[in-house]
Design a protein that fits this description.
51% helix, Potassium Channel Kv1.1, Chain A, 2 domains, alpha/beta, elongated, SKP1/BTB/POZ_sf, 388 residues
Length: 388
């Protein structure tokens, strides 16, 4: 089973399902596969499993699987088996083993073996989501970690294409915070904010997960946040050497993502450098703008004593104030219309054009640039892939 690299809060809870079997319907076909995952039984169809999962295409007829009895209710009997290292997978089991429900001691043992604050609650939900995707059922996601776990299991079971096809509906069905008052008019905005929080808090993971899913819009927005937060990520990693910000270890298995991030960073550096060069050149012949620049820098320095030590990619606050000042100066005739061209350059540098979210949390806006974008044809996967 693939492991995740991010740190998650401790999660506990009972299984969210009834202990009664969950039966998936497929018109014209009887369920011929019984799968039991941590005490929850599913009745599904081998034709569906093979259609949407390369894992089941290859391993459903496992060499160690015993042929069912002539009148057995299912042709395939599988159950989740936990390894000593805390990873689990489906293995063929006997009919007798399927009919023996786990006791509380078994549940406690499973939970104790799972690593990275995972529990059978989260694993069961994620596996259920994979089956829902295969049967085109609505999937509701309540947290980033549930989303990441679902992608992780889809990756392991080689079912990423069908989960990717469900992502747009998943994003529309995000469950807002339990503290959120469910005013119907506010629910869409709350879902967008929830997704924006994922990008802000887990930018690298969202970039990697969206790449696994081959989802262009999700990757585009994730890249904006990765590039925008890149200087801060480097600083956060250098301080505590936290696994959460270990971008080197996170991205090492994904060279094409590294290449895409590097390309976008290079574009941003080139754009910011060009704007800074043009400002120095033009302000040298315009005392009004030169004084404005000095005043803005002094204001920021007073409020943020370490501002002078920030990298060029952390100077967005300066350019926001400069653009506002120049617009007012142009409107009042204090500088010539030639500065409109420079204001246009600033608008590009300070732009924020995501596809799936429409606002940035106030606390992350301050100094970063959010103008990264992915050009068509440079996504870190093959555009014609239909099975991966």
């Amino acid at each position: 089973m693939l492991k995740t690299s991010f740190e998650r809060p401790e999660i506990t809870g009972d299984l969210p399902f009834p202990r009664n079997p969950i039966i998936f319907k497929n018109p014209g076909h009887d369920a011929d596969v019984r799968i039991t995952v941590f005490g929850q039984e599913y009745h599904v169809h081998s034709v569906i499993l093979r259609l949407y999962s390369n894992y089941f295409r290859r391993f459903l007829d496992a060499p160690n699987r015993k042929e069912p009895a002539k009148y057995a209710p299912f042709a395939y009997e599988y159950a989740a088996i936990m390894d000593d290292d805390g990873e689990w997978g489906l293995e063929p089991v006997s009919l007798e083993a399927q009919d023996t429900p786990p006791d509380e001691a078994q549940f406690e043992k499973w939970d104790s073996l799972l690593t990275n604050n995972r529990c059978i609650y989260t694993e069961a939900i994620s596996f259920h989501n994979i089956l829902k995707a295969m049967y085109h059922r609505p999937i509701t996601i309540g947290s980033f970690f549930q989303f990441a776990d679902t992608v992780r299991l889809a990756d392991f079971y080689c079912a990423l294409p069908i989960l990717s096809a469900s992502i747009d509906l998943i994003l529309r069905n995000l469950i807002p915070s339990p503290n959120f008052s469910f005013n119907p008019q506010d629910i869409p905005r709350s879902r967008i904010k929830m997704l924006g929080d994922w990008f802000c808090t887990h930018p690298l993971d969202m970039c990697i997960l969206s790449c696994k899913l081959h989802h262009k819009e999700l990757f585009h927005d994730a890249l904006i946040f990765v590039v925008g937060k890149w200087p801060r990520m480097l600083l956060e990693y250098e301080k505590p050497k936290s696994a959460q910000w270990n971008w080197i270890e996170r991205l090492e298995p994904h060279p094409r993502i590294i290449e895409t991030i590097g390309y976008s960073l290079a574009q941003l550096i080139e754009l910011q450098s060009a704007v800074a060069t043009n400002l120095r050149r033009d302000a040298a012949t315009c005392p009004f703008v030169s004084n404005m620049v000095n005043d803005i820098e002094k204001q920021i320095q007073r409020r943020d004593p370490v501002y002078s030590r920030r990298t060029p990619l952390e100077t967005a606050r300066f350019y926001v104030k400069l653009m506002n000042g120049l617009r007012e100066a142009i409107q009042r005739g204090r500088v010539g219309d030639t500065w409109k061209v420079f204001v246009g350059e600033l608008k590009i540098l300070l732009s924020f054009d995501p596809v799936l979210v429409n606002e940035l949390p106030v606390e992350v806006v301050r100094d970063q640039f959010w103008c990264a974008r992915v050009e068509e044809g440079v996504f870190p996967w093959e555009g014609e892939d239909v099975d991966w």
